[in-house]
Amino acid sequence: MKNHAEFDILGRVGRISPFESATRVSICANYRRQEREGGEWIDDPHWNEVVVFNKRTRDFIANHVGPGDLVIARGKLRQSKFTDSATGEERYSTDLIVLDFGQLAKKQPEDN
After folding, report:
1. Is 111 helix (H, G, I), strand (E, B) or coil?
2. 103: which strand partners?
3. Mind listing the pLDDT tens digit for each residue in 70-108?
4. Residues 9, 1, 57: CA angle, nearest 5 degrees
5. Strand 90-105, strand 6-18: pairing
6. From the CB of residue 110, how many other CB atoms can be counted at a distance below 10 Å?
7. Are β-strands 41-52 and 90-105 bridged in parallel, bridged antiparallel, or unpaired?
8. Which of 10, 25, 47, 92 is in the most buried spot, having the most CB atoms within 10 Å?
9. Which residues pair with 94 in a beta bridge?
10. DSSP-derived 3-state class of residue 101
């Protein structure tokens, strides 16, 4: 039996932060939901930051992807434990590690 924890995000790029061995990309997935009062449909954006380690994928992002582009990112979840240097407390974080990344559309001028 295979055990796994995976993610699949389809959304628009917010920020791209390249580092020496990884690139972080924030992606906004926009959900629609109905308000409790009045029943009006509204946007409900959720931001996620993914981490890309693969050099080829990082190069593709650096050369072809920009804020506002529609992308899909798939990968695995990894939980980390670390000690907060300011407080000395143990902290936990969950990283979204990209295994597959694709650009679906460039930002259009009307997408401002």
Report:
1. helix
2. 71
3. 999 999 999 999 999 999 999 999 999 999 999 999 998
4. 35
5. unpaired
6. 5
7. parallel
8. 25
9. 79
10. strand
Half-sphere exposure of 7 (CA within 13 A, CB side): 22
Contact by Cβ (8 Å): 27, 14: yes
Per the structure block, which two tokens stand in for 86? 């300011």
As given in the structure block, the two tokens for residue 36 are: 């409790």
Q: Which two tokens stand for residue 30?
A: 């926009």
Among 102, 9, 17, residue whose Cα is nearest residue 56: 102
Which tokens is 3 given? Answer: 């055990």
Q: Where are the domains of the chain?
A: 6-105
Write a three-state SS string for 32-77: EEECCCCCCEEEEEEEEEEEECCHHHHHHHHHHCCCCCEEEEEEEE
- Report the CATH number of the 6-105 domain: 2.40.50.140
Q: What is the model's pTM? A: 0.83
Return d(Cα 80, Cα 23) in angstroms, integer: 18
